[in-house]
Structure formats: C-alpha cells, structure tokens
Write a structure and sequence with these properties.
Helix content: 40-55%
Distance between the termini: 9 Å
Strand content: 5-15%
Low-confidence stretches: 117-133, 208-215, 222-229
Number of strands: 10
Shape: globular
Largest sheet: 5 strands, parallel
Order of helices and strands: HEHEHEHEEHHHEHEHHEHEHEH
Structural class: alpha/beta
Mean pLDDT: 89
Strand order of the largest sheet: 2-1-3-4-5
C-alpha cells in the first residue's frame, strides 16, 4: 500500500470510528432518556436527605471512572451547582465489599463500574495492574458483592455492568472504549441534571413546596426552572428533553473533534508508535476530571483488550508526590517536576486540559520540550495558550465552552488515538 493510500485508509477509519460513536450515542440516550430523568430525581431525593454518592471501581479503567464521578460531584465547575458529597472507593483501598461494609449508609447512592468478562466488552489484562492477581471475572464478582451489601443496607444502586444494581445501564456497543465514553456522558448528565430537582423542593420527599422556583444562577442554563411548580411528570419531561439535548451536543462535538483533528491524530499516532516501539514511555496528565481521563488513557495504553501493552505512566496518580510538590514549591510545578524526574528523550507526554490555560499543564509541556519529549495536547474552548503559542507538537482542539462535553469528546479522541497507534504500524508494514 502506498503512503497516500495508507493515509487515506486511516482517515477513513477515523471517520468510521466517529460514525460508530454517533450511532451508539443516539441509540443509547434515546432509549434511556426517561430512565435517566427519573434517576436524577431519585438521586436528588437522596442528596436532599443527606445521602452521599459512593463510586466503586476495581480495575484501572473502572477506577478512573469512579474517581471522575467523585471529583465532578464534589467540585462543581458550573455556576449554580452545589458541591455534593461523593467518595471514590477503588481497588487500591482493599476489597470493595469490605470498603462498602465500612462506609455505606442507608441513604447513600452507589454507582459501580466494572469490566464485563463476556468476551465482548471486557478489557483483557486489567488484572495485571492489581495488587492481587484477580481475573476479570473475580473482579466483577467482587464488585457485585459490594453492590449487594449496599442494596441490603438500603442504598440506591447504579451499575454499568452485571453487578446486581437496581439501575443497570448497558451501552449498546461491544467496543469498551465507546462504552466508557457513553458511561462518562451519562454520569456527567446525572451530575448536571440532579440539581434541577433541588430547585423543585416540592418534588423531593420530605421537603416543602413553594409556588414559584428561585432558579438563581442556574436560570441561564435551564430556563424552565423559573416556571411555577408543576406535577413531577412535567418536570421529568423537561429533564428528559435536556438529556437528549446534551446527548445531541456531545455527539456533534465528538464528530467535530475527530473530523477536524484527523491530521493531528494521525501525526500524533505516527510519532507515538515510533517512540513506544523503540521502548519509550507515554506520560499523561490533567487536572480534576481531566486527571481521571489521563488515568483512563494510561490504562488503555497498558491494558486495552486485543492491543499490545505499551509503556505508560500516570502523573496524576501519586498523591504523596503531588501534595509534596504543591506544598513545597507550588501547584504550578506538580507535573513539571515529574517530567524532570521521569521524562527522557524518546518518551512522549499527553496532556488533557479543558481550557488550554492551566499553568501546571503549560509548565509540564515546556519542560517536556526542553527534555526532548514528543508532546500531544488535547484542549477545549479555543485552545487557550497551549494552542495560541504552539506549546505542543500536536494540538487537538475541541471547540466548546462546556467542560463536561469537552471531556467527553476528549475521551473519544484519546481512545481513537490509542487505536491509531497500532493501525499506523500495520499500514506502514
């Protein structure tokens, strides 16, 4: 195959991957919008009575989602959203069942992430990163045991795998990358829209109604909050419509990111393939929800099913290192100091930022360039300083100002990049 023909084939594959995501996204949220709206109401009732959200994740990929859930609910990034109590219980803390036994209370919510061991949507090899040599089936069984304890205790339970949760969501695609992207959109939507019911106090069990809503800072996002109190079904219908709109938005944003960024993704994939094949390591980083996406990206490079394991290191993982640098030097240095410690010529750095202006991301990119690392930056908004100043070798811009949607589209981008790293080698051969 000629170089031109190979490039055309790879560009066509990116378009195909985008279409697969669009179809799965539309099918999933059209089918589940009403249930999602009702779940938002059920979660709001729990939070209003003092309940907490416990997110469970045993494998590397699952724990990235659990941590993402916790940071989104605890640290609201949208005006008008309140901080809600959420705790990530992950494999490194011990057996999930034992952690739930010690932590869960009757009014809590439990959301469980696990890898199916059915030959279709599991991530073969995740157990390699566990302190105990658990197979995927054992990890799934352990998560199910934790969910059973939560159910017996009176918790509301949500699951993205066959773990016995009351609310089971099953994305309609066997590709584990696409399933994770749909799950990420769903828990973002749950976080965004459960807040709607806090403004409808009469619709929450045990709280008093009032005739007119005080929509406050949320009014520009959800105009229907300013309407008079109505029946629950009317509000649920509004929330269902909002779920569909958000799903439509992220579908379009994924398409924009992948199609506009085809050349960038292909060039980055060629560089990464050459470096990783030669023994280099991919370092990854981000802040907040982007930190958990960096964790997911590293898990995907190391343990993705049907793909060879690649060397990768998560610079967001070690809280001792992060807090030591932040305390002794400052938060701007938390990633750059790790690039100094770990980065070598022949390695690569992947950065995730919704703004493109995070100082610690910029300092890491500058340090990586000084040390001869290849750099890939995925950024939102207009690309910020990273794009304007050309601070990375490959800059992929997701053109949105809405942080959850940016992160969801970036997840598609690094998943596609992961696949392309292997495909560019095949086309070269």
């Amino acid at each position: 195959m000629t170089r031109t023909a190979a490039s055309e084939a790879l560009a066509a594959r990116i378009e195909e991957l985008g279409e697969l995501r669009s179809h799965a996204n539309a099918a999933f949220f059209e089918a589940e919008a009403e249930r999602i709206a009702r779940l938002c109401h059920a979660m709001a009732e729990r939070f209003a009575r003092g309940g907490r959200l416990l997110a469970l994740g045993r494998s590397p990929a699952a724990r990235s989602d659990a941590r993402h859930v916790a940071v989104e609910f605890v640290h609201p990034v949208i005006v008008g959203k309140r901080a809600l109590p959420a705790i990530a219980l992950c494999g490194e803390g011990g057996r999930l069942a034992e952690q739930v036994e010690l932590t869960a209370e009757p009014g809590d919510i439990v959301i469980a992430f696990a890898d199916e061991d059915d030959g279709e949507c599991g991530r073969e090899g995740d157990a390699r990163a566990q302190d105990e040599a658990l197979t995927e089936d054992e990890a799934l069984t352990e998560t199910a045991a934790a969910v059973e304890i939560a159910r017996r205790r009176g918790c509301l339970t949500i699951g993205f795998a066959s773990v016995g949760a009351e609310w089971r969501f099953d994305p309609p695609n066997a590709d584990p990358f696409i399933r994770q992207e749909l799950a990420e959109t769903l828990y973002h939507v749950l976080w965004e829209l459960c807040h709607v019911f806090f403004e409808h106090r009469g619709l929450l069990e045990g709280r008093d109604a009032r005739p007119v809503h005080d929509s406050g800072a949320s009014s520009f996002l959800y105009p229907f909050l300013a309407e008079s109190e109505t029946r629950l079904e009317d509000v649920l219908e509004d929330v269902r419509g909002s779920v569909l709109l958000k799903a439509e938005d992220v579908g379009a944003l994924r398409a924009q990111t992948l199609l506009d960024g085809r050349a960038t993704l292909l060039a980055a994939a060629h560089d990464l393939r050459a470096l990783l094949t030669a023994g280099g390591t991919l370092l990854a980083l981000g802040n907040g929800g982007s930190a958990t996406d960096a964790t997911d990206a590293v898990a995907d490079f190391r343990f993705a099913p049907d793909l060879p394991a690649r060397r990768a290191l998560d610079l967001t993982e070690d809280s001792g290192i992060l807090t030591a640098i932040a305390n002794d030097i400052g938060p701007d240095a938390i990633f750059a100091r790790q690039v100094i410690a770990y980065g070598r010529s022949g390695d690569a750095l992947l950065t995730l930022s919704t703004s493109g202006n995070s100082r610690n991301v910029i300092e890491a990119l500058l340090e990586a360039r000084r040390r001869g690392l290849a750099t890939v930056a995925m950024v939102g908004y207009d690309g910020g300083e990273v794009a304007a100043e050309g601070l990375a070798d490959h800059v992929l811009v997701t053109r949105s100002q809405h942080i959850p949607r940016i992160q969801e589209a970036q997840a598609s981008a690094y998943h596609v990049l992961r696949e392309l790293v292997e495909l560019v080698g095949e086309s070269a051969g």
